[in-house]
């Protein structure tokens, strides 16, 4: 993951302009300021350059003062530049991981119109495609407003591996289909790296923005539906009960949405894939609440033959019917011990979820991967937004290592049970 060359070039120009003496004491700082201003406008670092700009402004103001003050301005300018360089390195412009499969990855988006009270849906499809280096690459995030807040914001400018206008690969067999379910207040593009990797290995991956549940849904006509969900209050029994009741309602909505998408795909919503999708024996996986949804779908709908849960709560008593893969962040020490007096409602809910997972693991074709050194969000694209995982709240393991393990296990699992 390398920072944008624009920021590096601007900082280098500013550094030289500050250090190289000249007859006009303000010419160097002005040149550095212009270089940084251009990087701010045309680059992706934006506010990460604020220390450098502030330092050079200080030098510019002090350029006509006494020698001592000028030296102080020089220190501020060089210190600000050093800090901005460090921030640009620490929070890079993310680079999508190299695909592990033999195929290029094509991607397209389509919309389903509203059906009665059911809202319109935005659907994105990733599929194995023929390679064409000239085809344009998609933005990592389809909507810039989905980018995280500063300093993790640069993913909003990053490019994914997926390309547009690519025909699917020739294959006499139907493509296995895997649905992706987003988190509680997430969106369809929160886990692009994993979906692209699965598509490169021969799967068609489908992700839906669930209106009202997704943080934000942007339609082609510019209309936006902002999510209504808020982080649940799990500090007391009433809060847990309210969350689980709302979760049941959300899961029912998701089931209905996915059935609409499945019918649309069968009817040729994607003409290049019409008749080439196996929609009778599908997979499903999801992150956080999306994993909860995958569990529910695999318990209730026989069409979802295999599923995977990436660190989501196991709610309800319905067990998946077929093969299932569990991913979990590092187990907290308190969960490895017997329940202690004073534990709250949230801890009790987590223990109940763990009990259900252990029960599910007694079934046939079940796998579990506990990822030591990871945090909850390590199973999303957030791992690519910072070079220090702990600072990004994703644990301690490097992004490349986490991505490699998760995608390998996901790909091998679905290949075994869907292909």
The parts where pLDDT drops under 50 for at least 5 residues are none
Which strand-content bin applies to the residues? 15-25%
- Kindly report the average pLDDT value: 94
Strands side by side in the biggest sheet: 1-2-6-5-9-10-11-12
Shape: globular
What does this structure look like?
With 419 residues, the chain is of the alpha/beta class. The chain folds into 2 domains: 86 residues; 315 residues, Rossmann fold, CATH 3.40.50.1820. Helices cover 37% and strands 18% of the residues. The chain is built from 9 helices and 12 strands. The strands form 3 sheets. An 8-stranded mixed β-sheet has the order 1-2-6-5-9-10-11-12. Strands 3-4 form a two-stranded antiparallel sheet. The protein has a two-stranded antiparallel ribbon with strand order 7-8. Strand 11, helix 8 and strand 12 form a beta-alpha-beta unit. The two termini are 33 Å apart. The model has no long low-confidence stretch (mean pLDDT 94).
């Amino acid at each position: 993951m390398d920072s944008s060359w624009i920021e590096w070039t601007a900082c280098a120009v500013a550094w030289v302009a500050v250090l190289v003496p000249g007859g006009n004491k303000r010419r160097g700082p002005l040149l550095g300021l212009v270089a940084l201003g251009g990087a701010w406008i045309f680059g992706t670092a934006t506010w990460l350059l604020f220390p450098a700009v502030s330092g050079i402004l200080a030098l510019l103001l002090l350029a006509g003062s006494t020698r001592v003050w000028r030296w102080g301005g020089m220190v501020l300018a060089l210190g600000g530049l050093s800090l901005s360089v460090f921030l640009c390195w620490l929070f890079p412009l993310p680079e999508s991981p190299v695909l592990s499969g033999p195929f290029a990855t094509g991607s397209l988006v389509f919309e389903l119109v509203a059906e009665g009270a059911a809202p319109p849906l935005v659907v994105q499809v990733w599929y194995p495609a023929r390679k064409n280096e000239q085809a344009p690459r998609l933005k990592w995030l389809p909507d810039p407003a989905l980018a995280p807040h500063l300093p993790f914001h640069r993913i909003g400018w990053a490019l994914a591996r997926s390309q547009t206008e690519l025909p699917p690969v020739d294959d006499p067999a139907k493509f296995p289909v895997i649905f992706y379910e987003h988190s509680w207040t997430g969106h369809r593009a929160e886990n692009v790296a994993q979906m692209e990797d699965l598509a490169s290995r021969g799967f068609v991956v489908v992700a839906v923005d669930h209106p009202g549940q997704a943080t934000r849904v942007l339609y082609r006509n510019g209309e936006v539906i902002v999510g209504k969900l808020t982080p649940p209050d799990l500090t007391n029994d009433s809060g847990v009960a309210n969350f689980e009741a709302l979760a049941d309602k959300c899961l029912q909505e998701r089931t209905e949405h996915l059935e609409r998408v499945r019918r649309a795909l069968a009817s040729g919503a994607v003409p290049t894939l019409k008749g080439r999708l196996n929609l009778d024996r599908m997979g499903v996986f999801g992150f956080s609440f999306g994993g909860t949804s995958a569990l529910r779908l695999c318990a209730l709908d026989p069409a979802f033959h295999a599923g995977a849960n990436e660190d989501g709560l196991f709610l309800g008593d319905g067990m998946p019917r077929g093969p299932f893969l569990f991913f979990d962040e590092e187990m907290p020490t308190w969960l490895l011990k017997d329940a202690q007096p004073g534990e709250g409602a949230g801890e009790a809910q987590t223990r109940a979820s763990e009990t259900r997972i252990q029960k599910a693991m007694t079934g046939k074709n079940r796998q579990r991967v506990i990822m030591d050194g990871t945090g909850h969000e390590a199973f999303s694209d957030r791992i690519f937004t910072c070079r220090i995982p702990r600072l990004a709240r994703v644990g301690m393991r490097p992004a490349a290592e986490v991505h490699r393990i998760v995608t390998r296990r996901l790909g091998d699992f679905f290949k075994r049970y869907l292909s």
